[in-house]
Specification:
The chain is of the alpha+beta class. The protein has 8 helices and 10 strands. α1 (13-27) packs across α2 and α4 crosses α6. Residues 12-73 form the HTH dtxR-type domain. It is found in: Cytoplasm.
Length: 252
């Protein structure tokens, strides 16, 4: 059995934040990870990112050449997956056990992920029945660093006529999450891309199950936050106001 780290034995909070953001940008497939993209996500200057990348390089966590893209090393991947496991399990626990809504948990988990022990996180996982995804549909890495894979695509990149189930929602903007909840759009809901309006206009989508479908316009910002996969509706995801396609069965 792998040894469990205490919070005091881990990299610094800033190092964990950086490797987590690099991994998240890589994972979402939005193109090469750049200094400017990292600066935007972390709300810091490009020069601050450049300085931290030098430190991460010295620690063997990233590979980066000047003016090139940023990549995590194998060691960096392991560090990122460790903090993502803590973050996503904490988000899930806050929603399922403490009745937080899905737009409230990100900032809380950002704080807690750096101070809880691996043992505590493993207890959360066991208590929740080892969930494979958090309330936003983000995959939860296993204790040994494996990540469940799914066939998904961004709704904004889909072709007209594409149908599927919403399985993931980008969680970086709480206002957007609240808007989606108010519109009753969330994990597990069936969606069809009916039409793309010209000149960067909204997408027209059809949402819901047979007999209860509604047609509505969806702005590009929202469409760029929704990940769709083939499949069928499953069960209600707590805290989101919508269904969840990949929720694991709860323990008896």
């Amino acid at each position: 059995m792998a040894s469990m780290e205490s919070a005091s034995e881990r990299p610094s909070t800033s190092v964990e934040d950086y490797v987590k953001v690099i991994y998240d940008l890589q994972e979402r497939g939005s193109g090469p990870v750049t200094i400017s993209a990292m600066a935007e996500r972390l709300s810091v200057s490009n020069s601050s990112v450049s300085g931290m990348l030098r430190k991460l390089g010295e620690l063997g966590l990233v590979a980066h050449r000047r003016y090139g893209d940023v990549r995590l090393t194998e060691t960096g991947d392991k560090a990122a997956l460790s903090v993502l496991r803590r973050h996503r399990l904490l988000e899930t626990y806050l929603v399922e056990a403490l009745d937080y809504s899905w737009d409230e948990v990100h900032d809380e988990a950002e704080i807690l992920e750096h101070v809880v022990s691996d043992r505590f996180v493993d207890r959360i996982a066991a208590h929740l029945g080892d969930p494979v995804a958090d309330p936003h549909g983000d995959p939860i890495p296993t204790r040994d660093g494996r990540v469940p894979e799914r066939d998904t695509q961004l709704l904004s990149a889909a072709e007209e006529g594409t149908t599927g189930v919403i399985v993931r929602v980008n969680d970086s903007d709480p206002d957007l999450l609240r808007h989606l909840a108010e519109e009753d759009i969330g994990i597990g809901m069936r969606i069809e891309l009916v039409e793309r309006r010209p000149f960067g206009g909204p997408l027209v989508v059809r949402i819901g199950s047979a007999g209860e479908r509604r047609e509505q316009a969806l702005g590009l910002v929202a469409a760029e936050a929704l990940w769709v996969a083939p499949g069928h509706e499953h069960e209600r995801a707590p805290g989101t106001g919508a269904d969840r396609a990949d929720a694991p069965p709860k323990p008896e």
